Amino acid sequence: MSDVTASDSALRRFLHGLPGVDAVGLEGRAASLGTRSIKTTAKAYAIDLAISMIDLTTLEGADTHGKVRALCAKGVRPDPTDRTTPKVAAICVYPDMVATAKKALGDSGVHVASVATAFPAGRVARDVKLADTADAVAAGADEIDMVIDRGAFLSGRYMDVFEEIRAVKEACARPDGESAAHLKVIFENGELATYDNIRRCSWLAMLAGADFIKTSTGKVAVNATPANTLLMLEAVRDFRAAVGVQVGVKPAGGIRTSKDAVKYLVMVNETLGDDWLSPDWFRFGASSLLNDLLMQRQKLSTGRYSGPDYVTVD
Fold first, then answer.
1. Which of 109, 125, 146, 173 is the most interior residue, by most CB within 10 Å?
2. What's the predicted TM-score (pTM) here?
3. Active-site residue numbers?
4. Over the stretch 16-62, which tens digit does the pLDDT of each residue have?
């Protein structure tokens, strides 16, 4: 695939040569997969798997060190009354909170993810984006969630977007030579407007070295949907078939209930199979989803619906 990215014209030809998306077929399949019913032990397994895939997130201007430490405690022990409850995959914070999260999580195994590149708009110069990334990595971030320049993409400046992702990927390297932070590339699907653009953006990000592709920031009106996530799942499947490299997927924004989470897991299983049914390859970007998963988990184990007062408030 090196020829594809050898020049701006070659990259453009490749991206515009991808098959057009059948919107009716895509939305119909996503809706069909959402009707699958999962019961008893399979449902309990799906709930635990979903908990283990959550990037528990706080990305507010009012975030404090105390709030981040509390969120870390919740991520490590989501249900203090039940030690069998899985830990979440990661705690996702702004770069200035990375050191606090890293210290609070210690050797728990929960990763620290940090948004970077002037999240959520990305409207700063590239050197600022790279410095933002390098600061988060130096503070201990295990994962970086970057936003693409949607203006550049929508203007057809694909090589600019490709080179910026590549540069951020290089900034994920650690000065001490240890393993680099994993890079999640956020598209903001709601602003890309068309399914064809989402497919092109998926391939562009994967060609540039993304470890994960992510639907959205959670800060706009349209975030993750079953249809746009299914399209990205198909893209990573086709990418692995073409080049032999596996890439993860992270839907984010608007996924709030256990029923929603299970529908997404069914999509992953039906589209990609067991290879992606792991926190290493699939994540949920969420802040409120965990509470509903915990309530449903308690109901399955006790037979009673505990209600929101029995889980901690994020």
1. 146
2. 0.94
3. 145, 214, 250
4. 999 999 999 999 999 999 998 888 889 999 999 999 999 999 999 99
